Amino acid sequence: MLELYDNPSRIRVRDKFFRLYLSRDQIDEIVSGIAGRIDHDYSGKTPLFLGILNGAFIFASDLLRKLQVQSEISFVKYSSYHGMASAETVNRLIGLNEKVNGRDVIILEDIVDTGLTMAKLLEDLKEYSPTSVKIACFCFKKAAFRENFSIDYCGLEIPKLFVVGYGLDYNGAGRNFPDIYQLDETV
Ligand code: IMP
What domains can you pick out in the chain, each with its CATH number? Predict the structure, then answer.
């Protein structure tokens, strides 16, 4: 059990090997940076965070515990990824069940890749007339991005790598690693 938290430089998730990409300290610094910016921009407001399950649950929990502003949180669930590739179609598995009408919404996503998942949620949100909608994501694969929305709070731009850990999975596994690992194809 201890091995997860020992900061190994290489891990195995299912049939693949991954090597350390971003340490928990670097992750912490990035999340603190996002929290500081949101605190600044939302002073005196009570934003409603909408986390996208499954991946964003760890980022959401870390971010909320760093914020000074009052906030509420709810989650939606969309599924688009199979294995290591975007599935091209996005399925809504749990919809919006909060009253987002008239609220300042901040969407929380672990990673924006093609942008398809986020585009679908943005489309769904229009029905509920929020006062404002902003996007916070832990990381962004700019080179894979195919949509045209802008990301208001982006923790880190990363190349087109496949990564696991910190909520990100490979076929459902690997979300629990405190650090982020990239696919190691040299093995
Ligand atoms: P998009 O719809 O292509 O932007 O993909 C967004 C979703 O795909 C994210 O919420 C993740 O669940 C998943 N995803 C994208 N890239 C990766 C990755 O490198 N590792 C694990 N999951 C990923």
Answer: 13-80+92-180 (3.40.50.2020)
